[in-house]
Known about the structure:
Chain A has helices spanning 2-15, 17-54, 81-90, 124-129, 141-144, 155-162, 205-213, 231-245, 261-300, 302-314, 319-356, 364-390, 394-399, and strands at 59-64, 79-80, 94-109, 112-121, 133-136, 150-153, 171-174, 177-185, 201-204, 217-218, 220-225, 256-260. Chain A is an alpha+beta fold. Chain A folds into 2 domains: 2-52 and 266-398, no CATH class; 77-254, no CATH class. In chain B, α3 (110-121) crosses α4, α3 (110-121) runs parallel beside α5 (154-166) and α4 packs across α5 (154-166). The A-B interface holds A 1, 4, 8, 11, 15-16, 304, 307-308, 310-321, 391, 393-396, 398 and B 59, 62, 64-66, 84-85, 88-89, 91-93, 95, 97, 99, 103-108, 112, 116-117, 119-122, 164.
Amino acid sequence: MFASTLVMAFREIRRNMMRSVLTTLGIVIGVGAVIMLVTLGQGATDRVTADVAKMGVNMLTVVPGAERRGGASVGASSLTLDDARAILAQIPSVATVAPSSGRGMLVVYANQNWSSTLTGATNDYFTVRDLKIGTGRIFNEVESQGGTPACILGPTVQRQLFGQQDPIDATVRVGKIACRVIGTTQPKGQNTFGMDQDDFVLIPLATFQRRILGSHDVGAISLSATSDAAIPKVKEQLGLLMRERRKLPYGAPDDFSVRDMKEISETLSSVTGALTALLGAVAAVSLVVGGIGIMNIMLVSVTERTREIGIRLAIGARAHEVLLQFLVEAVMLSLFGGVIGMVLGLGGSYAAGRALKFPFRVMPEIVVIAFAFSFVVGVAFGFFPARRAARMNPIDALRHE
Amino acid sequence: MSGPDDRGAPLIVMRDVFKIYGSGESEVRALDGVDLTIANGDFVAVMGPSGSGKSTCMNLLGCLDRPTSGSYYFRGVDLANTTLDQLALIRRHYLGFVFQGFNLLARTTALENVELPLVYRGLPTAERRTLAAKALADVGLQGRELHTPAELSGGQQQRVAIARAMVTAPSLLLADEPTGNLDSARKLEIMHLLRALNRDRGITIIVVTHESDVAQFASRTVTFRDGRIEKDERGAAA
Ligand SMILES: Nc1ncnc2c1ncn2[C@@H]1O[C@H](COP(=O)(O)OP(=O)(O)OP(=O)(O)O)[C@@H](O)[C@H]1O
Ligand SMILES: [Mg+2]
């Protein structure tokens, strides 16, 4: 009996090609859209999270000047190396402190030149910024003290000046300084804001201070906390320490500011979270629209199907036999549509994710939900009108219009 | 009230059957107290003006509908307390029905339409095919097996419906104006076929018709008027 029911259901599907295709299409669209939108949204979130992590972990940065739109205020006294030492010595939970200073400069090698940022930094800068050496080495003792000028190139600068050539031991000119290239860093790519994180030249802070600044000023102090959880505490103590060192009277506003990577990352996460929620909502709408599509097709065909059921009943079919056939039919269509939708949704989001450089991460629960929803809608609307018809007197089903 | 009975035990007994549609002002008494006994192996013609309750009575006899009141015994069994499923099984095993409006499955070939009652009887495919093809040949439709109802004329559709009703060799064949759309040659052919089924296989047949030359084939003629049986005569069977 079951085999012949299968055959019969399959025949009905083929016989009513248009209706079958439309039903399947509704399910394909519902499942496909949801999977694609949510997977892409998740990819975007993952990408942002990864980007934020690349900017440095557990990092805080102190810069002179109150937090203001349009950059640091003029007039605020700058930071010093003593500030950096004090922070490391006096605040618990501070792992590493990296004072640095930067300035936009033209970098020249042979007949190539490139406008980049020259950053004076210590080796701790690598730790705090999560920066890794690609080729060569970091600064040695002599160089760090401000001896022979040495520099480390970011991948962008390396590419612009040297192309495929090996830059190690070459001499580049930055402003008035001629310095030997001792290393390059591993690429980080663009950050979430589209800024190139590989476009810089590092020289020892001492060299920068003596040859570029002509003072002992420090432009910024970055520091990393021992853990994520310690950040708020460190931030608070940092504020107090800086106020004390800068001798700010009680009630005076800060003349420095502390930037918190975690804050930025949280903001970004909430933005992408909102994005994912939005995509999810769009997806839910498309699921509902797909569902309504399925529903319509099923309901429109109810009259014809009711007559069909009447005929089958009149000829000697029992209600449950007719229902089984309709159920099998609905299950087959819904399964078929669900699988196609799943393949298209995953394939589509994979392709789109590659184009947009988003990581591809499937959320199995979403796949399951989308699939289950469409399946239930497809089966329910194939089944329930049929059940109503199958419970009528055959003559009423036959007369149905 | 019951007609003469000389070919066996009663197959059908209807007692005081009413079928009332609507209520109050719009009440229609489609059947208004019908008593009818039909013997096993009989060939009955049902006549009467349009709207007199012929189809309503046939639907009750065919277990497609239930009376408003009154009792119906089929093969001695009271059908008053049967479930829909039990009625379905009676239709499956004992009944064949030719509808006034054919009621063929759309977009389904003549052969598959005729096969359908055999599917529910659980016959294997090959046997179904053979029997269905033979039934179609019996009604003169060989060569039309793979046509769908939309590709057949009214008379051809009617003959598919007849083939579907008789393919199972039912105990009782109910035909509601089975020759309504046929030319007189075809009509005679079908009636000869029905008479052969009646005589050779002992199938009890009830045919609704407006035409006396069709009624001629029956051995008994029951005439309805306003939901009642007005006349019940043993015709001279040909
Ligand atoms: N479903 C229904 N609802 C309401 N009234 C109905 C219904 N079916 C039949 N009737 C009424 O019952 C009466 C008998 O109808 P029936 O179909 O039995 O007539 P008939 O004798 O078969 O006529 P015809 O020769 O035209 O086929 C008619 O007056 C009809 O209007
Ligand atoms: Mg009628």
